[in-house]
């Protein structure tokens, strides 16, 4: 029963995340005015704004101007609902769920905005560092010390890589947004997760990059945003940190 509530709650938050995704890059208010169709600007009535369901009922089109509704809307709502359910299954009705859910929600918003605009808004990552630090004081999964080291390692390591890259290749390879994002990830998950995030994020990012190069014939200068892969790496670290650490130790022992 509570699992169903967590799915509905997740879908509703996902609907709000869609608002953040379309308005944050334009520096518009995320609370006012209410949702409106991006094409005909007509306000969307509450019964046409039900997460996932309205998309199907309206047959993927605006009720007024019949412009197609982007697949991004149900996708973000669905992924957020699923994230909420998985977190709830892992942590139960606890403070950990209430703190890790906004963390995952922030990663979802960052991923989509970075894909569209190649930016990671500071208004998410910077407060995120603070919230992660505060979370470490209240939840059993992480200590304050681990969170602080996580911020320093996350921010510091990428800052070093970015500076080195710029010095070697005389152009910007990694944005400051990635540095702040990894600091936020470190704040919530600790220093071990930062290493795991960099490893899995780089691995998945490189594979994706190679696939894009082969399919589209573009060279390495074609910049793929790193934020989505760091976010994915962080989610992997959040759910599989212990499993991956013990797997690594097993491999080391031979
Ligand atoms: Zn419309």
Briefly say what this structure is.
This protein is mainly alpha-helical and 254 residues long. The chain has nine helices and no strands. The chain is 71% helix and 0% strand.
Could you explain the architecture of this structure?
The chain has 254 residues and is an all-alpha fold. It is built from nine helices and no strands. α5 packs parallel to α7. The longest helix is centred in the last third of the chain and has 27 residues. It is globular and about 60 Å long. The model has no long low-confidence stretch (mean pLDDT 91). The structure holds zinc ion. The site of zinc ion has 8 residues, from loops.
């Amino acid at each position: 029963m509570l699992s169903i509530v967590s799915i509905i709650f997740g879908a509703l938050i996902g609907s709000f995340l869609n608002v953040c995704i379309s308005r944050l890059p334009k520096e518009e208010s995320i609370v006012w005015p209410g949702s409106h169709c991006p094409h005909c600007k007509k306000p969307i009535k509450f019964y046409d704004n039900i997460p996932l369901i309205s998309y199907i009922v309206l047959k993927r089109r605006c009720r007024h101007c019949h412009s197609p509704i982007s697949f991004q809307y149900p996708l973000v709502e669905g992924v957020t609902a699923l994230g909420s359910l998985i977190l709830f299954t892992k942590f139960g009705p606890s403070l950990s769920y209430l703190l890790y859910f906004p963390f995952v929600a922030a990663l979802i918003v960052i991923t989509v905005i970075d894909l569209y605009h190649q930016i990671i808004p500071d208004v998410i990552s910077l407060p995120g560092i603070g919230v992660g630090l505060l979370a470490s004081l209240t939840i059993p999964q992480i200590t304050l010390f681990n969170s602080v080291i996580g911020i320093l390692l996350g921010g510091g390591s990428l800052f070093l890589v970015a500076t080195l890259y710029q010095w070697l290749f005389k152009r910007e390879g990694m944005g400051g947004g990635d540095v702040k994002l990894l600091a936020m990830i470190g704040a919530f998950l600790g220093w071990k997760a930062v290493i795991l995030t960099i490893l899995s994020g780089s691995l998945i990012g490189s594979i994706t990059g190679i696939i894009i190069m082969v399919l589209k014939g573009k060279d390495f200068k074609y910049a793929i945003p790193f934020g989505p892969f760091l976010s994915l790496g962080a989610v992997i670290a959040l759910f599989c940190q212990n499993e991956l650490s013990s797997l690594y130790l097993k491999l080391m022992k031979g």
